[in-house]
Fold:
Amino acid sequence: MSTGRRQFLKAAGVTGLLGLVGSPLLKIFAPGELEASSEFREGAALTARRWSLVVDMKAFPTEESYTKCIEACNYTHNIPRMDNEKHEVKWIWPETYEHAFPDNYDVYLSENIESMTFLVLCNHCDNPPCVRVCPTKATFKREDGIVAMDYHRCIGCRFCMAACPYGARSFNWRDPRPFTKNVNPLYPTRTKGVVEKCNFCADRLYRGEQPACVEASGGALIFGDLKDKDSNVRNILRTKFAITRKPDRGTLPRVYYIIGGS
Amino acid sequence: MIEKALSGNKFYWAWVCFLLAVIAVGVASYIRQFHYGLGITGMSRDVSWGFYIAQFTFFVGVAASAVMVVMPYYLHNFKRFGRITILGEFLAIPAVVMCMLFIFVDMGQPTRILNVILYYTPNSIMFWDMVALSGYLTINVLVGWTTLSSQQKSVPPPKWVKPLIYLSIPWAFSIHTVTAFLYAGLPARHFWLSAIMAARFLASAFAGGPALLVILCLIIKRITKFDPGEKAIKGLVTIVTYALIVNIFFIGLELFTALYSQVPGHMQTFQYLYFGLGGHGKLIPLMWFSTFLAISAVVLLLVPATRTNQITLLFACASVHISLWFDKGFGFVIGGFVPNPLEKVTEYWPTLNELLVTTGIWSIGLLILTALYRIAISVKVELEA
Ligand code: SF4
Ligand code: SF4
Ligand code: SF4
Structure:
């Protein structure tokens, strides 16, 4: 866990260094290009100036397609399956439009939207209230925009949970380890009494891998650099109408939803 | 002076033993919670703060209310409060201690509490709350203790006390303002996101705290040789009355904005608290009971006959205190989490273990209060003898 943080710091350091050498090297490639980028050394980190995620709802036709993404995340990050719903831990989960976008809901919306299932997760806000309120900097925003957590520093005050307008955070109300059956050795399990949430797969990016949910989504989730005007995400956002959750809260969410039409 | 807390009749000792027993149960319950995790409480992913934080909020108010006796006496030379300023200051001490304990038992990783200092983060209001509360505790201990010991020796208090007393006045306002800011600056929760929050907190504190002080004065008058004085109590009652009315007025302002604007986010929590939301309404009886108590207290406090009669006065003050306790020590915090950010309703109700930890903390507060009052009153009685 603390190694997680150390890795982040190292990754940030590496980014800085390479930045001096030449940033073109670090351009974040679109998923297609990424596969071709085997010249990436094993372990070379994926970096960006501002990571973001686009959810293309049209590409999520079936329950199976989004369940795969959730399961990928659950396995990758050792998400426990708590037996009590009140103690639930979830990083990415399905919601209806009404709950994902409660401020934009209306009863006469298209039936199509009514039947859609939206994957919701931490928005890695550009102006994150969870970071603002955390009394220990256990939740912090990285240079690349990822709102990350240090499970070893968190005191479990849950101020961040009160502050997040998206309900993106979970608390370990009890020891989660007995509830994690299939442990992924590449990511730490947590202890009781700390908060956790989606980390935009900072651990995987460091190893040069795309986020687990993105990899499992078959193209429905698109991950890329928002600050690079030629990036995959910018290209989509330029051409398709996308919305974010609760933009009125001033948090500047960096997870976008393309709902329909082209 | 401290030895005075160690002498008393058998009722005194029976009371102390009773408190110690409740504390022991509280500690045992806390140990259980420590091992199991906070899942042993009624809190959940959706209602992630519960009784502990609500009680913390309430007792910050009680602590801040000491200023209502300190300020008139020192700033406005309101002599009648001379006899009870020490009671106000000594009430603030256990109140702050309880606040700190409530925060502590609410922490998921209590052993890491020093992280708040090691990695101090001024952009977090919690940092300022820690500064405000520990500062206020220090000020009240210093001021209360030195003024009392100089009184005992019949010498004027040392010069450095005066500035500290003046400092305690804005500091008292600050502790409750900062506590309100914990809530009032969160974009996630409409119910708390209100500019009037700090003002409302102060109004309810200045009603609830002095109401408790009136009750304590009446008890002291009954069971000790010290008489806080008719006039002092009358002064307190006036404060309680106006503060209570201002508090009700502020709640009215909140209700108007929410209900007339019809903005769903603003209305939903009120709906949940008073009428229920989507078939959920565990807090409805509490909230109406609180409303009923507040209104009857206003009546009892405004009508001269009931205001001057000790029994009805006691009743009125208890109503104020209990009403605000439900409102702020329960509904306010829980309500903020309902509905959740996805507009779903999860309800909260404290568990037995949670209540035992809570009563343990109350008893620690009462024990400190008992000891401090015992000391203060012994000194006062000796001086008057
Ligand atoms: S979605 Fe919530 S947890 Fe994630 S960065 Fe924004 S405020 Fe923080
Ligand atoms: S629970 Fe942990 S991450 Fe959240 S505000 Fe408290 S210390 Fe920070
Ligand atoms: S980005 Fe990674 S951590 Fe976040 S939801 Fe997807 S798989 Fe989970």
User: Anything to note?
Assistant: The domain at 2-384 of chain B is CATH 1.20.1630.10 (Formate dehydrogenase/DMSO reductase fold). The CA atoms of residues 9 and 112 of chain B lie 42 Å apart. The mean pLDDT of chain B is 94.
